[in-house]
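Lab notes, practical 5.
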Amino acid sequence: MANRLRVFIAAVSVVAAASACSEEFAGGAACPVLCPESGFEIINDTLEAVVTLDSTVRGFPLPGHESRLTLLQRFGNGDTAITAAVVRFDFIPKTVPVGTTADSAAVTKIDSAYLRLSIVSGREDSLSRRDTAKHVPVTIEVYDVDTTATDFDTAAVRARFRPGPLLGSYTVRRDSLPDSIFVRLDTAAVRARVQAGRLRVGLRIRSDSSMQVPILPSDRGGQLFLKFWARAGADTAVRTVVPGSSSTDDVGGLPELHEYLIVLRGTPPPPPQLLAVGGLPAQRAYIRLALPRRFVDSVTVVRAALVLTQAPVRGRTDDTVRSAVQANISIAGPVLDVTRASLLVRATFGLFEQARAPRDSGLVRFELAGTIPFWRQTPEEDLPRAIVLRASREAEFPSEFHFYSSEAPANLRPRIEISYVPRVDFSLP
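Output from the prediction step:
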């Protein structure tokens, strides 16, 4: 009996395997309504010359949109990168109440000024865990970076990170850095800024070792504030000031610049024929596709993938650390500005991220089968078929990924692999 059972199971397995290897489907008379007697075959195709435009765009996320203010310094061949953060206190009271009356007097003296910062325990990857365990000192420096320049003149702000405008510092061994720190500030320098009604500070780290210290912004729940004792004669007021910017986003879609990250020294641009994702300033890869209309309108797509060839990035401190490369679609509409088109993105079903290390190489597939139905809803003239690749930890991590562009040799260029059948109508008659 046992032998017969084994023979039966083996026979069933052979039949199932043979069926699984077939790419041909057919209905039958047993289910005439739901399974009509018609056969169809999956057609596999590779679209080679499918990219009409691809480009690397730098400068993400926009200032003020960071989830963390990662103070970072990395040293190495082609890996030197330094970031800093700017925190604005544009609404500081310049007076203190006088006695019990409604009168007030201008601040003449400042006592015990300090800046509170919330430190994020970075343990998401091996490099962050290695940083937090280092037995080396790290100094968090606070600078006066106020200028009369326009909001987006970052060159003027970067020039303020020098010894003269230093307001205070905090030094501790990296593995002993607490979750919350208080940096004492120069009271004379703070008084001059309080009397003017605003103070803008810059944060950066210094150490003999490569490392990063993530700060949690106030709009993400961080306890980040300026505190001081303001005096006018015999009257005193304790002031706790949270970040705030006089810049608004009412005109032109400008971000609110309460806190934002700047790059003092960034990673180099990618070599020719390569698209870059990540790095500092963070980069995105914009890829516009010339997908034949029939694949969107006239067939049923079973499988589809954008296939890229990754080029290894070696010789950097983080080249073996894996993080995610996300694929999104651009929803910018028929705009000519690639930077704006790379900014306005959204996720679609099935367009998953891929975990990669910078030194990896070979083929990387981003599935498109769930994206094509979304594109079907809008004519291509109104919504170009474009994919945007970005790092999942933009501006938090210096990891950079390179992919061959449409200018690379033919065997390395982006392509689409697609499997489809003629449009199948599954509705009831």
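Observations recorded by the TA: The chain has three domains: 2-41, 45-59+269-422, 81-265. DSSP finds seven helices and 27 strands in the chain.
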